[in-house]
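Action item from last week, closing it out:
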Amino acid sequence: LAVEWPKSWKAPLISRTEKLFPQLGTCLSKQWGKEVLTRDTSGCMQHPLSTAEQKQAILQHPLTQAHAHLESFEAQRPEPSQEFFDSHRALYGWVMQNDEAIAQEFVHCQDPSLTLRNDPQRGSAWVGGGNSVA
């Protein structure tokens, strides 16, 4: 929700995520201590924190901090080149082609009790689970 994307990009992604994870609203409302999450005019869930507070929470989250080795990253950053561009383009292409598998792996790592239900008429949805969403 804290991602700085145009609403025209963010709304379809949030909608798709909610379809994949129907229990997302319930989990987030519990995590944020709210009965019901408010929605904007396009139907997107609204985070109870301001955008600045969301960004701070993301920066302070253990997942973000666990890999924060900025000094070593800066020292090893590749110089701009055609080779770097091609490598980045190939990686980006792989992510775009495997986005659903990457998302499934992430969700499974966060809550192994969730299982993906494939229903030809309703589409895929995660079911089960009892842990909080990270």
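Closing note: The two ends are 13 Å apart (CA to CA).
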